[in-house]
């Protein structure tokens, strides 16, 4: 795939606007996806590839959010996930018979995993101006080993022009150690006792994000079609369907019979006719 297909994710505060833009791009139907994937696979149509990528940016964001607990920039995680998405689109074979999201999730996670493995640290020091000042001056202002006393905390804070909270936070960080990404062989037996490493919880094997997203997309699509179909019904039929099937506090046939001054059997007939109309409209 050419360099023109690279997707640059804005950093820091701009990530929110990027996410809004990504979520504004409509998802593809199964038929649209199949057509684009076939054009890319058989004709190397880069415009088709671009549409496939753009329509799945929201899925990359969804996956990247699952790695937000490692202290890494969300923009970087999304960027790495986008690389995985582009690799997946390039290798996707529409003849296999699966949706792109099910195929791409493994490539997206692989790129994010590798990035986390290379860059993750439990202790992040010197991330702000105040913290940088503390990092380079804290030890030389300390008179003894061990934790600061309250008086020493106040003295250091006043000397360096930072808050006591910043002093305590940096002292805690500098007294901590990086955690190994994977447990050593000796630690394997102690995992159940609380000795966990990041490698053990990078991914929830019991959760299939691809399936979750496909189900969510299907549900949204079905809800949209249901709303459209309901509008086509007359007012009374809409009320019957809403109160009998969609409302949290559902009405009985007799409730609606009393409301419309008709028999319960007539309400049942109206309900059946309305359901048939909805079914016919939604399968078109």
UniProtKB/TrEMBL annotation:
Region Sigma-70 factor domain-2, annotated ranges: 52-121
Keyword set, alphabetical order: Cytoplasm, DNA-binding, Sigma factor, Stress response, Transcription, Transcription regulation
SUPFAM superfamilies (alphabetical): Sigma2 domain of RNA polymerase sigma factors (SSF88946), Sigma3 and sigma4 domains of RNA polymerase sigma factors (SSF88659)
Subcellular compartments: Cytoplasm
DNA-binding positions: 253-272
Pfam families attached to this UniProt entry: Sigma70_r1_2 (PF00140), Sigma70_r2 (PF04542), Sigma70_r4 (PF04545)
InterPro entries noted in UniProt: RNA_pol_sigma-70_dom (IPR014284), RNA_pol_sigma70 (IPR000943), RNA_pol_sigma70_r1_2 (IPR009042), RNA_pol_sigma70_r2 (IPR007627), RNA_pol_sigma70_r4 (IPR007630), RNA_pol_sigma_r2 (IPR013325), RNA_pol_sigma_r3/r4-like (IPR013324), RNA_pol_sigma_RpoH_proteobac (IPR012759)
Protein name: RNA polymerase sigma factor RpoH
